[in-house]
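Attaching the record inline, Q. Sequence:
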Amino acid sequence: MSASDFTTTIKVDQSPQEVFNAVTNVRGWWSEEIDGNTAKLNDEFEYHYEDVHRCKVKLIEVIPNQKIVWLIEKNYFKFTEDKTEWTNTKPTFEISEKDGKTELRFTHFGLVPEYECFDICRDAWTTYIQKSLKNLITTGTGNPNGKDKPQTENEKKLSAK
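Structure, as predicted:
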């Protein structure tokens, strides 16, 4: 991991298994606009948000209750000069027990400040992990985006363009 890869961490009272189950329920915290499977090794899914962002994701490492690694196989951003900025990056979810709590460390390996999308993507991931995924873990209900329902302020701004 380079110091510049985006990382955010949450701690919850729920078990590693509950955290793992929530992470793999991608429709429950990221987007209702997911096509494909999101829980097992080699599963593939496609994400899209309007005509603003699309990506194809493959699960390349899955260790139940410990770690999930996605590979962004294809990516399209409407709002960046390089439309493929996320391609070949690896969003990674690491689950561990610390001080009687379960810690989820999310690192998007390859999402670095040099990327044009960095600020927008950092803000979006922070919202999805710190709020939506945490809510799904702790209350059973996340805040995914859905049809015509942007989750983050940046998505609202991008949709308006």
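The chain has one domain: 7-160. The two ends are 34 Å apart (CA to CA).

More tomorrow.
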